[in-house]
């Protein structure tokens, strides 16, 4: 679980756009960049090198 206040201020370090929290995968998703940043031990890892590329089907499905 990630704090809602923290989620409201975090942005993608690549595109500076908002992120979507994917609870199932414990990731913060940047649809603009096509990247999913992992959350490890409750801490978002906001490094492009650590992010997972997401495909078009994941972007259209929308994370909740």
Automatic annotation (TrEMBL):
Give the stretches traversing the membrane: none
Which cellular components does GO assign to this protein?
cytosol
Q: Which Pfam families match?
A: Trm112p
Q: Tell me the InterPro entries matching this sequence.
A: Trm112-like
Q: PANTHER family in the record, alphabetically?
A: PROTEIN PREY, MITOCHONDRIAL, ZGC:162634
Q: Which family does the record assign?
A: Belongs to the UPF0434 family.
Q: What is this protein called?
A: UPF0434 protein DFR27_1190
Native source species? Umboniibacter marinipuniceus
